[in-house]
Amino acid sequence: MKIKNVNGDTKSKIVEAAYQVLAEQGFEKASTKEIAKQAGISQGLINYYFSSKEDLMFEIFHLESARYIEEMNKISEIPLNKNFIRHALAVPQNMVHQYPDWHRLRFELFAIGLRSEAGRKEIQQSLEAGKQQVLKTLNMMPLRENINKKALASIINVTIDGLALEQMADPDFDLDAAYVTLAELLETYLAKP
User: Fold this and answer.
1) What one-character DSSP code corresponds to residue 83?
2) Percent of the chain at pLDDT exceeding 90
3) Distance (Å, rounded) from C-alpha 31 to C-alpha 24?
4) CB–CB of 27/108 below 8 Å?
5) Of 1, 58, 82, 162, which is most buried, counting CB atoms within 10 Å of its CB?
6) Residue 143, helix vs strand vs coil
7) Do the Cβ atoms of 63 and 5 come closer than 8 Å?
């Protein structure tokens, strides 16, 4: 995995190494010493670029969230036809398979947010960005006027997160079947009378 849009070679090395170490070991177990070793730099350089391991985590998360939004923007290229919902849901579904480390880091951020005000704000911003992405998709669709799009966007956003979490927690979980069922639920709910 190559991190994009980080200024400076040393900072890029730190972020890339931290991504790998945090994804493998989790936030609590990962040490800046291990991150420095992975990056091939002195541990002091991490402190020069980042005031804490938490700040380093937030940097990674911002960069990866931008990539996530890029992927989700592909939904706007899907033709609006009777299979639109299924094709649109295939985008986040495929991302669970393609980017498991990103999802693991996302849930690490959720854990930080339960203990830290700065983390809570990061979660809040991330959830809002996800909700806005879903809302953008809903706004493309011809929907009944009485549908509360903001509420539905929140529900879809957290459902997508929840399905990714279940896949991480239970390797036997049938993610594909869950996405088919989610598509069926949405198709039924959004069908014009």
Assistant:
1) T
2) 54
3) 12
4) yes
5) 58
6) coil
7) yes
Q: Give residue 151's identity as a one-letter amino acid code.
A: A
Q: Are 149 and 143 in contact (CB under 8 A)?
A: yes
> What is the spatial distance between Cα 109 and Cα 140, in angstroms, rounded to a whole number?
30
* Average pLDDT estimate for 3-8: 48
Give the integer Cα–Cα distance in Å for 8 and 169.
Answer: 36
Question: pLDDT at position 1, please?
Answer: 43
Question: Whole-angstrom Cα distance, residue 146 to residue 167?
Answer: 33
Tell which wins on pLDDT, 180 or 20: 180
CB atoms within 10 A of CB 110: 17
Asked whether the beta carbons of 53 and 30 are under 8 A apart, the reply is: yes
Q: Which tokens sit at 100?
A: 């498991």
Give dist(CA 193, CA 177) in Å, integer: 26
Q: Which residues contact 33 (CB under 8 A, 6 or more apart)?
A: 43
Question: What gap in Å lies between CA 18 and CA 53, rounded to an integer?
Answer: 9
